[in-house]
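Response to reviewer comment R2.3. The reviewers asked that we include at least one raw input/output pair. We reproduce the pair for Hemerythrin here without editing.
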Amino acid sequence: MEAFPVWSDKYSVKNAEIDLQHKTLFILAEKTAKLLNRHIYKAEIKELLGEFFDYMKTHFKDEEAYMHSINYPYIIEHKAMHKKIIKDMSALLGDCSSTNDLKEKLYKIVSVWLLEHIVEHDMRINKFKQSQEKQIVEEKEKEETFEYICGCKDMIHKLDYGLHIKIKYLNIAYKCKKCFKELTFNHIEEKTD
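Raw output as returned:
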C-alpha cells in the first residue's frame, strides 16, 4: 500500500476552520496507513474507522455550511459525495469477512476520500471562492472612479481604476479629446460635512 500525501498549503481551501479539519484528516489517514502496514486486529480497525467516521461527519457538516455561505454552485453534488462516503464507511463496519478485507476496504475509502475528494473536489471550492473574490474586486474597481482635469474649463474626467493606475503609476499619458491637453490627477480632496 502506498503512502498517503502529507498536508501542505496546496491543499488549502483558504478557510481556517476547514483547513484545520483537513489537516486532521490527513493525520488520521497517515495513522491509518501505519496501522494497515502491520498486523492489526479487527477491533483496532473498527476503532480507527469509528474515529474517522465521527470526524468526517462533523467535517462534512462544517464544509457544507461553508459552501452554502459562499453560494458554491455544486453544493448539491458535493453533498451527495459526502453522503456516499458516509454510506460506504457505514457499510464497512458490518460487511467484512476478514481483517484483511476490512484493511483493504478502509484503505480504499481513505485513499479515495483523501486523494480524490480533498485534492480534487474540495480544491474546486477554493477555485470558486478565489474567482468570486476576484470578480468582486474587479466589479468594485469598475465602479470606483478617479477625477482628472485637463485644459478645458470646468471639465472633470472620471476615469476607472485601470486608467488611473496607468496614468498615475505607470506614467502613461492620456489626453483630452477636446483640448488635447494631458490629463492630470485632480488632487482636490472632497470636503466632508
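The first strand starts at residue 145 and ends at 149. Residues 189-193 have pLDDT under 50 and may be disordered. Further pairs are available on request from the corresponding author.
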